[in-house]
C-alpha cells in the first residue's frame, strides 16, 4: 500500500529566524531547552527548522519563554 506524504504549512523558517535573531546556535538552543526539561537533540531541532518534523507544543511554549515572543511570531507569514 502506497502512502502519500502530505505537505502542510510548517513554521521551520520562522523557527530559524527567531533562533538567529536571538543569537543561538542550534546546539546552544537545544542545551537551553534540555535545561528547561525538553529532551530535544540538535538533529531533531534541525528537522523542525527544515519542516521534516512537527514541533511539539511543549517545545513551542519553552521557545516562547526563551525568545520572549508571542505565539504569533511562530506563525508569521503562513
Name the CATH class. Answer: Mainly Alpha
Principal-axis shape equals globular
DSSP, total strands? 0
The radius of gyration over CA amounts to 13 Å
Low-confidence stretches: none
Please summarize the sheet with the most strands: none
Mean pLDDT: 90
Could you characterize what this model shows?
With 78 residues, the chain is mainly alpha-helical. It has a single domain (12-70), classed as Orthogonal Bundle (434 Repressor (Amino-terminal Domain)), CATH 1.10.260. The protein has helices at residues 12-21, 26-35, 42-50, 57-67, 71-74. α1 (12-21) packs across α3 (42-50). The radius of gyration is 13 Å and the shape is globular. The model has no long low-confidence stretch (mean pLDDT 90).
Features:
globular, mainly alpha, 0% strand, 434 Repressor (Amino-terminal Domain)
Topology:
Elements (H helix, E strand, L loop, with lengths): L11 H10 L4 H10 L6 H9 L6 H11 L3 H4 L4
Helix pairs in contact: 1-3
Give a summary of the structure in a few sentences.
With 78 residues, this protein is mainly alpha-helical.
Amino acid at each position: 500500500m502506497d502512502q502519500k506524504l502530505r505537505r502542510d504549512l510548517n513554521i521551520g523558517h520562522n523557527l530559524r529566524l527567531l533562533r538567529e535573531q536571538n543569537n543561538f546556535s542550534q546546539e546552544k538552543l537545544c542545551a537551553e531547552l534540555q535545561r528547561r526539561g525538553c529532551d530535544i537533540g540538535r538533529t531533531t531541532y534541525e528537522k523542525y527548522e527544515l519542516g521534516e518534523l512537527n514541533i511539539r507544543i511543549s517545545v513551542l511554549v519553552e521557545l516562547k519563554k526563551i525568545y520572549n515572543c508571542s505565539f504569533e511570531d511562530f506563525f508569521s507569514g503562513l
